[in-house]
Please model this.
Amino acid sequence: MTDTELQSLIDRSLFADLGYIGADGAPAIRRVFCVWHRGIGAHLISTNTSSGHVRALFEHPEACLYFADSEAFEGACLTGRAVPTRREDYRRLLWNDGDEKYYPLGVDDPDYTIIEFIADRADYYRYDGKGTLSKDELQTMDADKAFENGYRRCCAEQEDQTEG
Amino acid sequence: MTDTELQSLIDRSLFADLGYIGADGAPAIRRVFCVWHRGIGAHLISTNTSSGHVRALFEHPEACLYFADSEAFEGACLTGRAVPTRREDYRRLLWNDGDEKYYPLGVDDPDYTIIEFIADRADYYRYDGKGTLSKDELQTMDADKAFENGYRRCCAEQEDQTEG
Model:
């Protein structure tokens, strides 16, 4: 896969699977809504502060983020760190009209948290082969990029579904 | 979710996400074709002996298997052990006409391996709440069951896509 094809896989995904170490020390997975990306190597996910995976990530931030398109037989597993944060700029960036139904106190609701995932490596797979991008390669590729809603950019005709 | 609804989520899924500990000790995920189930707690997955996740599971069989329906906001994370095996009965059970394109030497191809996943626990999530089934509960529920292709049973009208 080219870098452009890998970015397309990430951008057209509404969801990703977050892999982490659960409370019992065993591997665990949670599907998360994930549309805010800075290139290939950095991703923001809004979630409930009180959720089990946030508690687990405070203990063990080592995690992976997996984007897959089963129909296209494409997958990318990013390995790195997933850190829960209450950074105000991230909270405001990801907030949408209507999110009050999840977080009644609004953007400052203490149950509203952002997970910042930063990849140290990207392993990708497709029917025609596989490959790896290193941390240095990811940093070089993403150096001049800012966080943006990739799904909104790639799939604008469905924009009414892309908030988040 | 009721047990029946949980079984439905598993049966109508063609794929699941296998979470495991990768070669570097960090969490990793691989999407796998997964239609052979014994109830909720046991699953068989055919794969290449030479693949990275098989090598990793030989080192660390502790794993999870995640079934999710993003549209229905349903997910189930099974935690347990994923053990690669060359058991002949499993290899024959999962073999399909045409698999020679993946395994040229047929059902005895040394690159053809079955991963047997046995859950110690099932955690499930839906818009209306979450819950857990213990190992004892899973064993009681699945006691009289045999491995079968759940997708073929649940979604017979699409049977031409269900081999595997």
Q: What stands out?
A: The beta strands of chain A are 15-21, 27-33, 36-38, 42-48, 62-69, 74-85, 112-126, 129-134, 148-149. The longest strand of chain A covers residues 112-126.
